Amino acid sequence: MSKSAILWNVGDKWTVEDVQLTEPRAGEVLVKIAASGLCHSDDHYATGDQPAALPVVGGHEGAGVVEAVGPGVTRVKPGDHVVLVFNVPCGDCGYCNTGHQNLCIYNPPKADPLPPAFSARGQAVPAIAELGTFGEYTVVTEARCIKIAEDIPLASAALLGCAVITGWGAATYLGEVKPGETVVVIGSGGVGVNSLQGARSAGADIIVAVDPVEYKREQAVRFGATHTAASVEEASALIAEITKGAMADVAILSVGVGDGSVLQDTTRLTKPGGRTVITSVTPAASDTVKLNLFEFALSEKTLRGNVYGGTNVYRDVPLLLGLYQRGKLELDGLITTTYALDDINQGYADMHAGKNLRGVLVFD
Ligand SMILES: [Zn+2]
Ligand SMILES: [Zn+2]
């Protein structure tokens, strides 16, 4: 018996309740969760912006300690500290063999998936991203566990599982930021500030953070912003002034909920040949954008989506933890507020109120 937060219907709050978990089956691992980030993506299930079969056990950004392993597990052993990841390369497919491991998730699963490890109220309940980190325990496949050093705080490490890797990779791998470039990141939430960090890692010269919330603009500076603006219009004027009209090399859209109507203004922040990365999740039913294609084509601009920051978790989680350990990547400061599992809905209310870079559930 364990407690987890479950979403039963679109529009519901998360309910914290008793769940049953299977023993770890072949290739699976029982993890005692230490911390789980309150990512905006889970909220997209609650609002219906991300369609999904419900109910689900929430949470896809967690870290914890391995409690038990099933038959055949070789990657981890009981007592190991692990970051959980949802985007796991198979190693065999075309994407994995051409350096695009993050896209492997779109390949058909190789074998019949096991039934969900969780059940509640007498029925099986799938876990978001096959992780279900909003709870005291989870059972996941060993491939989703990345062992980390025991002196790394688990609450900080948890954020690598989604926010850090998605945001950092948006600048480094997908935006392909180069030394000396000008980068603008729209949205300074838990993901956006990691794009600021990514731009800094890549050697950007000017890094402009755009957010209407003053607290987030203040925080953005610690994560690498050299300038801040409260709106895209303000950023446009600022970047034009700094670059003497040239505009930015890279724009990254990382607001909480995407909106196609802002695409034109976002791409106009970039110079001819500039790159725009769309990190924001836009409601799945929305299919209109505003974009002057005449202007876009004749300025040779690039527009790119974002799946897990273009990263390979087995390379990049250790890489990012190395940067953290050497003081080159901020993780601890991402955690604005910690919550007990029972207070999960307060955590999401605070996220919507713009109070948190990241709210994090912590467990004893
Ligand atoms: Zn997430
Ligand atoms: Zn693959």
TrEMBL record:
EC number assigned by the record: 1.1.99.36
The protein's enzyme class: oxidoreductase
Cofactor: Zn(2+)
Gene Ontology terms for molecular function: oxidoreductase activity
InterPro entries named in the record: ADH-like_C, ADH-like_N, ADH_Zn_actinomycetes, ADH_Zn_CS, ER, GroES-like_sf, NAD(P)-bd_dom_sf
Superkingdom, natural source: Bacteria
Keywords tagged on the record: Metal-binding, NAD, Oxidoreductase, Zinc
Keyword Nucleotide-binding annotated: no
Enoyl reductase (ER) domain: residues covered: 11-361
Family per similarity comment: Belongs to the zinc-containing alcohol dehydrogenase family.
Protein name (database record): NDMA-dependent alcohol dehydrogenase
